[in-house]
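Methods — Computational structure assignment.
A single polypeptide chain was analysed. Its primary sequence is given first, followed by the predicted tertiary structure written as structure tokens.
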Amino acid sequence: GNAVGDVYDTVLETSNIQGSAPVGGDDEPDKDMSLVDRFIDLISGIFTPVLSVLIATGMIKGFTALLTSTAIVDPKGGTAQVLNILGEMVFYFLPMFLAITAAKRFKANQFTSLAIAGALVYPTIVALTASADPVTFFGIPVVMMNYTSSVIPIIFAVWIQGHLERILTKALPAMIRNFTVPLITVLVMVPLTLIVVGPITTVVASGISAGVQFLFVHAPWAAGAIVGGLWQVLVIFGLHWGLVPVIINDLGTLGYSLLAGPLPPAVLAQAAAAVAVAIRTKSKARREVALPGAASGFLAGVTEPIIYGVNLPMRRPFYFGLAGGAVGGMIAAIGGSATTTFVVPSLLSLPAYLGQGSFVMQLLGIAAAVTIAFVLTLLFGVTSQNDSPDAGPDEALPVE
């Protein structure tokens, strides 16, 4: 009856039978690991099962951009629309994919996690993000934000969910536990995520945007270095979405966005670092992620697969990519490079940077970023400590 789940857990604990083990380990990593190492291990473990489909759809997105930019496929036709859907669907619904892997990691109910993620990307929630009317929940103000493609909110929600479910399981009678635990969990977690995570990420992102805009006016070289060097860090936390409205607002009011100028060097530097890893690594599994992941980074500006599957777990390639992005972003910003339309930064979207600032400086910035990231990773990024023939993309080994 209702006790089957408890019996199942007991059998697994008292035998050598392997059940549905948490992905990438449990939520109690090695106590000797630093907080940074624990965070990287957590993120890598959650993302690893999703990497293959992220790479696949990222490559579709890149080839679609190539086909439409060369007029082989009509950008406004049905074929392009279907291909765009295929290339963007996983990224749009990324919280739902991460809900499954995070639930395994944090020992939470996967279907309840999916319900929470489904609420975050529900069309009404997305529509309320653009609404001028204030949103409240039982009188509590809710700062709306777009959770599609987000990372941190669902991971945070599922982590809390796992603890809440265990408390409820112990407290509630077995005869009503099957439906009351998910009922209470969803009722608590969805509003909590909307009310708490939304305002926190909005305030942090708004503060970052204001600071960056100030620097672009008074010290463009510093602004370029900061944006180029930290953009991929913001991607990890999902905070880069807080800068997207600033870019869109600049395009609408000024006709260009200086904030977008340092982004191509930042993105392409990570792709270049992944190529260097593919050349040096002894791990076939890591190489199989690095090469197609780098292709999606260069062509489509999609760096999540190589960040979570290659560069970040190995540490040094990620840091060298940040260094290349900082130098390249500084050069692009000094030249006043800016985009005149909203694009995902990649090689195929470079024509959007032709109309404002120095395009030559943008190209020099990209060249510097790619060269720095590639050469440093090739020479110093792959060591005996962070690479081995049997290491997979999810293994975050300590660096010298």
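Note: Strands lie at 135-137, 140-142.
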